[in-house]
Amino acid sequence: MEEKEISQAVIGRLPRYFRYLSELKYAGIERVSSQELSDIMKVTASQIRQDFNNFGGFGQQGYGYNVEFLHNEIGKILGLDRTHHLIIIGAGNLGQALANYVNFERRGFLFRGLFDNNSELHGKKIWGIEVQPMENMEVFVKENNIDIAVLTIPKTEAVTVAEQLVEYGIKGIWNFAHVDLNVPENIQVENVHLSDSLMKLSYNISRFESDNTK
């Protein structure tokens, strides 16, 4: 049977479902209806049901969803039922901030290495991780089963480093460099453009102000 293609819009909502279900779970709530999720998520109940139907539904008519079961199932869909080993390339302010963010570890994303071409940073420890020179990266990736690389380096360096990571056998790249990476189809890339997000916020502020001055 051919696997159903899931839209990126649905995939984009899954982490939000997981996050809110985590909050419900830790609050001791055992069941939640699509309407209750709708009130929390600010997504229509119909949309929530459609999203979940892509993966089999998860609920029963008139009975709602078991919070722990749904939380676990969405976690599996997101690949959070296994551990991911990450390295960060770029030990500047952003790289250090990411290495220090403990919530990644709670989700199974374990930072194993930190690399930079600035010799003044070599040997410095960030959250217990020692910054290493770039020439150590190939051996480290292969010996430590690294599957995700995080790029927090200038775009002028990102393309070359991404090509190296592909050769080293990396499976995914979380790219904070403001450049599109040309990598093989089997390498998954998630681009994070911080300025784009800020401009979107600016647009929404402007639209809200415009709507309220009419």
From TrEMBL:
UniProt GO molecular function: DNA binding; DNA-binding transcription factor activity
CoA-binding domain span: 79-180
DNA-binding region per UniProt: 16-55
Transmembrane segments: none
GO cellular component labels: cytoplasm
Chief location bin: cytoplasm
Compartments (UniProt record): Cytoplasm
GO biological process terms, semicolon-separated: negative regulation of DNA-templated transcription; response to redox state
Keywords, alphabetical: Cytoplasm, DNA-binding, NAD, Repressor, Transcription, Transcription regulation
Record flagged with keyword Repressor: yes
One Pfam family here: CoA_binding
Residues holding NAD(+): G90, A91, G92, N93, L94, G95
SUPFAM superfamilies associated with the record: NAD(P)-binding Rossmann-fold domains, Winged helix' DNA-binding domain
UniProt xrefs under InterPro entries: CoA-bd, NAD(P)-bd_dom_sf, Rex_actinobacterial-type, Rex_DNA-bd_C_dom, Tscrpt_rep_Rex, WH-like_DNA-bd_sf, WH_DNA-bd_sf
Function: Modulates transcription in response to changes in cellular NADH/NAD(+) redox state.
HAMAP family: Rex (MF_01131)
Subunit structure: Homodimer.
Record family assignment: Belongs to the transcriptional regulatory Rex family.
Protein name (record): Redox-sensing transcriptional repressor Rex
Species this protein is from: Kineothrix alysoides
Lineage, broadest ranks: Bacteria, Bacillati, Bacillota, Clostridia, Lachnospirales
